[in-house]
Amino acid sequence: MDSLNDLKKVWLSADTCALPDTAGMMRAIHKYRSQKLMKKVALILTAICLIAVMVSVVFLYKSVMISTRLGEAGIIAAGLLLVITNIGSIGRLYDVKNLSNKEFIIYLEQVKINRAKYYRKTQIIGLSLVSVGLLLYIYEGVHIHLWLLLSAYAFVLLYILVMWLFVRPRVYKRQARKLDATISEMKRLADQF
Amino acid sequence: MQADFKEIYTQYSPPVFRVCMGYINDPAQARDLTQETFIAVWQGLSSFRGDSKMSTWILRIATNNCLRALERSKKIQTTELPFDIPERNEEQIEDKLAFLYKCIAELEETERIIISLLLEDLPQAEIAAIVGLTEVNTRVKIHRIKEKLAVKFKAHGQFE
């Protein structure tokens, strides 16, 4: 090595012309912001639509059974829970890139705790409300014919079981695995300092 | 704010790109990392209080961004260095740069960051502030990195 200055000369010769110009960068920023926000907004709007549909059903369809009313209440409550949880998480879409490595690890650990809490409490409450709500809600419509009752309940129960026993734990485990890998990688990098 | 940002982007995007390139050794991914860095800069610009220099703040975001791009960092090009690189006087600057990137790619992640910042001509105090080390530790790290690079260059007959 001649000297550090020689290396600096070589280093500074890197071609940076392929970088987007300021207009391109501004476009990328606006696209990123809207994409990130749109995912959350779409989920919240879907939940609001679900609530609106259920509320209009309450007024349009005059049910005679208390089970139907309870079912409607359960589904609306689950929808509200989804909306409240996701509106709360919009506030957490803050930038973490300016955090130091130690702060970032603490942040990730907190995310892990929050996710575990959500999985063990909020999600169970939400899924319970929607599951019980669905089971109660469909009874009035299908109880007249035995075959209809059995097939409707078989279908709904299968859906609920798949959600509870397969989709929910699988999604949680996959996210937890990814988060654990990120935390351990960040700790490994922090050890290098 | 938009006018400020445009000025900041024009001034700092080349050094950010070079630091990302030193870390990832892939132009397309370095471009993506640069873009992500400036998205974060845009988001944080209104809350930047000037506690540190603008360059320190931006390069800290860039280096954090690099270190946290875990999926990308698995694909870092650390292929074997060629032993038949042409003699120094025949060498093009592009070859030298490619060789430098390859040598840096063989270092540990944090070492790649530190040497990239050093090559950007940042003072050691600023490098220390960016990576979160004390100045003494930074000096020691820099010394070790230089030694490691010197060994690599010597082994391949480069920059002797």
Mind sketching the topology for me?
The complex is a heterodimer of chains A (193) and B (160).
Chain A: H1 4-12, H2 22-60, H3 66-90, H4 101-142, H5 146-192
Helix pairs in contact in A: 2-3, 3-4, 4-5
Chain B: H1 2-24, H2 27-44, H3 54-68, H4 70-73, H5 93-105, H6 109-119, H7 124-131, H8 135-155
Helix pairs in contact in B: 1-2, 1-3, 1-6, 2-3, 3-6, 3-7, 6-8, 7-8
Provide a descriptive summary of the structure in words:
The complex is a heterodimer of chains A (193) and B (160). With 193 residues, chain A is an all-alpha fold. Chain A has one domain (17-192). Helices cover 84% and strands 0% of the residues of chain A. Chain A has helices spanning 4-12, 22-60, 66-90, 101-142, 146-192. Chain A is elongated and about 90 Å long. The mean pLDDT of chain A is 85. With 160 residues, chain B is an all-alpha fold. Chain B has helices at 2-24, 27-44, 54-68, 70-73, 93-105, 109-119, 124-131, 135-155. At the A-B interface, α1, α2, α4 and α5 of A face α1, α2, α3, α5 and α6 of B.
Summarize the structure.
The complex is a heterodimer of chains A (193) and B (160). Chain A contains five helices and no strands. Chain A is mainly alpha-helical and 193 residues long.
Structure keywords:
heterodimer; A: 193 residues; mainly alpha; 5 helices; 0% strand; B: 160 residues; Butyryl-CoA Dehydrogenase, subunit A, domain 3
Radius of gyration of chain B: 16 Å
Per the CATH scheme, the topology name of chain B is: Butyryl-CoA Dehydrogenase, subunit A, domain 3
CATH architecture of chain B: Up-down Bundle
Give the number of DSSP strands of chain A: 0
Please bin the fraction of helical residues of chain B.
Answer: over 70%
**Shape label of chain A:** elongated
Q: Give the ordered list of helices and strands of chain A.
A: HHHHH
Beta-strand content of chain A: under 5%
How does the major sheet of chain A shape up? Answer: none
Question: How many domains of chain B?
Answer: 1
- Rounded to an integer in angstroms, the radius of gyration calculated over CA atoms of chain A is 25 Å
Distance N terminus to C terminus of chain B? 48 Å
Structural class of chain B: mainly alpha
Given the C-alpha coordinates, what overall shape of chain B results? globular
Structural class of chain A: mainly alpha
Euclidean distance between termini CA atoms of chain A: 25 Å
